[in-house]
Amino acid sequence: MSIGIIGSGNIGSAFARALAKARIPATIANSRGPESLTGLADELASFITAGTREEAASADIVLVAVNWSKLPTALAGLPDWNGRIVIDANNPIEAPLFKPAQLDGRLSIEVFADLVPGARVVKAFNHLLAPLLSGDPKAEGGSRVLFFSGDDDAAKAEVAVLIDRLGFFGIDLGSLAVGGRLVQFPGGPLPALNLVKFG
């Protein structure tokens, strides 16, 4: 099961660090090209490789974490997703102003899904702050919670296995329509909560 990451900002880099800590290989890409990722690739050498957007997008599971306004460009012109799993780790908001994007009444996951036709979309990894995502998931003595949702049960099951391998406790929030609303930032009740499962 190959993993790709499109986006090397806070969440993309934190996800890469979590993978490396769990000894899971992946390819990470951004809009500036592999040479701009030398520092991160060196830090996480032997597990995380810097690649092109096309290389990252060809993986079996692809996590996308890009500034909201740059998503259409980041995902344009890529090969057919052909049923592969794409994880939406994005929030419809951007620093430094953190002004919510105009979604015209739609959920951000609906907008995202339109940008990856043919993909099996799972919403995950967007609700935790980056330091918690890359930190020790057992830090509080239990297992830090990671929410996920999706409309394809098999795709969700594969993401659940990945979450478990990273050391987190995954909670399935159900469909994208339900889970996507609960973890959407801003607006949903679950973003930025550091919840821990004990026992």
Overview of the structural elements:
The structure is a single chain. With 199 residues, the chain is an alpha/beta fold. It has 8 helices and 9 strands. Strands 1, 2, 3, 4, 5, 6, 7, 8 and 9 form a 9-stranded mixed beta sheet that branches. The radius of gyration is 15 Å and the shape is globular. The mean pLDDT is 96.
Count of the separate structural domains: 1
Encode the helix/strand succession as letters. EHEHEHEHEHEHEHEHE
Can you count the helices?
Answer: 8
What's the name of the CATH homologous superfamily? NAD(P)-binding Rossmann-like Domain
Protein name: NADP oxidoreductase
Pfam family, one: F420_oxidored
GO molecular function, one term: oxidoreductase activity
Keywords: Oxidoreductase
Search tags:
199 residues, alpha/beta, Rossmann fold, nine-stranded mixed sheet, 19% strand, NAD(P)-bd_dom_sf
Outline:
By secondary structure, the protein is α/β, with parallel strands linked by helices. It contains 8 helices and 9 strands.
Give the topology, please.
Layout: E1 3-6, H1 10-21, E2 26-29, H2 38-43, E3 48-50, H3 53-57, E4 61-64, H4 71-75, E5 85-88, H5 108-115, E6 120-124, H6 130-134, E7 143-150, H7 153-165, E8 169-172, H8 176-183, E9 196-197
Parallel strand pairs: 1-2, 1-4, 2-3, 4-5, 5-6, 7-8
Antiparallel strand pairs: 6-7, 7-9
